[in-house]
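ASSEMBLY PREDICTION REQUEST
Request ID: AP-0331
Submitted by: J.K., bench scientist
Number of chains: two
Total residues: 606
Priority: normal
Notes: Please return the full assembly, not individual chains.
Input sequences:
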Amino acid sequence: MARLVECIPNFSCSKEKDEAAYNALVDVAKSVPGCTLFDAQTDGNHNRCVFTMIGSPEAIEEVAFLLTKKAAEVIDMNKHVGEHSRMGATDVIPFVPTMGVTVEECVEMSKRLGQRIWDELKIPSFLYEDSASVPERRNLATCRKGQFEGMPEKLLQPEWAPDFGERKIHPTAGITAIGARMPLVAFNVNLATSDVEVAKKIAKVIRASSGGFKCCKAMGFMLEDRGIAQVSMNMVNYEVTPLNVVYEMIKALAERYGTYIVGSEVVGLTPAKALLDCAEHYLKLENFDAHNQVMEYHLVGME
Amino acid sequence: MARLVECIPNFSCSKEKDEAAYNALVDVAKSVPGCTLFDAQTDGNHNRCVFTMIGSPEAIEEVAFLLTKKAAEVIDMNKHVGEHSRMGATDVIPFVPTMGVTVEECVEMSKRLGQRIWDELKIPSFLYEDSASVPERRNLATCRKGQFEGMPEKLLQPEWAPDFGERKIHPTAGITAIGARMPLVAFNVNLATSDVEVAKKIAKVIRASSGGFKCCKAMGFMLEDRGIAQVSMNMVNYEVTPLNVVYEMIKALAERYGTYIVGSEVVGLTPAKALLDCAEHYLKLENFDAHNQVMEYHLVGME
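STATUS: Completed
Returned structure:
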């Protein structure tokens, strides 16, 4: 089975505002064997671009360094204007375990990369999400608060020394956030009620922020076109909080409010494992080893 | 997404009895770009070898032809002795849809291959399983009955003309069976009872042969080491008869006999889709498109 990591770096430039800089980054993203550039999105208003790359841990770590180096060459944050919050030429580098790799290994990758971009490029960095050195740094928005312009002052505050590098930004490339996180699953559950308050009450019970499941973010919404209420969730770690667990909890709570689940949806790409774990639960599978027993895992990386 | 077909041809030779012939076949199996030889098993007592290859439909169809040609060159069925039933140098060629390919496309592959090995090699063939021209030919054992030695006489019977070729075997290569079938899922469900009769009664209700689900074969067994009864199934088409359907039926029948399901297992490799379909069922997923929404499908065939 192939070992694969996804990396979704965000850069403070756009094809719309500086095509040469954007193209230079795309070229670097395609330059490392063993790494595939899946998608490149650019937004002129945000003056920001986001790459989605998948490859071996080694190739991904290397391309992330080379991209950070190139971004420092072609982007001057003193001249950057855009709607999106940002603090560095390479603003953020997330590593996501995709196949045959643990989130702990991605944490190690983020730490090696942080050290290297300080040693070789003199760009400081924060570790965030699962790589965070203290709980306050898990949230990217907290790390980025103050943005590029406010960062020199922020770094002098006792609690905001970078995880790598000195207490001052790189003069043109700023500072970067690097972190490992599990893949996110967008999971929505629809209820047989037009009362959005039911969905809101259920969301409050199941989400971590109000005392619910550790790796579940949830809100209650109205689906206006269908006239029904929806519990909309971001499952930020489906291994810690499985989809079937929140589904069964919502089912029980819906019954308590006199309604029931009519359907659900996963939005966008999801890792097979998040759903295979549900099949394992409902079929009461014993000794099931998805990575060895599911054919598709053997096909990835096949020559 | 990659388009992939699995092919598991069986040849009437073994590394143990004729290493040169075996090696010649292995070399051919590795010779076509776009096709990977996953596994090669050889059995001296059976005097038979089985290759597992996966690749694009085009590459698989080509390699299946080249292997049949090579087998006809290196194997003389008049001299073949082995415990396993056989009727040809290339005894059987199954095509199994693996990703982005329908079983109907595999049926077309089997028909083109049958025509070609007659046209170019003068080897006749039967179509079996989903490719069968009449229901009596679906079963490979029925096609092969009489074996190489009895085949000249069998082909003269009114109902046993080959699907391709004349009513006589190739003098040294015999006759070949070619067919498309869905991947098989070995699925067992364990019951909280030591009464094997309950498992046997349930198996009888759910299996096709006694009036149950069309694509389910089932038997009742005793798991002696655990002291519990098991319904052991071969699911021969999980799209026609989903795993969750037989699971729920067994659950209901177990209750009728005063027991319940304690667990289940899938044995060996299984296609992700057979289990993703179960997750879709139990989570009531709406508009779920596994091939577009499951990340791993996008990773297969990635460069």
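REVIEWER COMMENTS: Residues 76 and 172 of chain B are 5 Å apart (CA to CA).
SIGN-OFF: pending second reviewer
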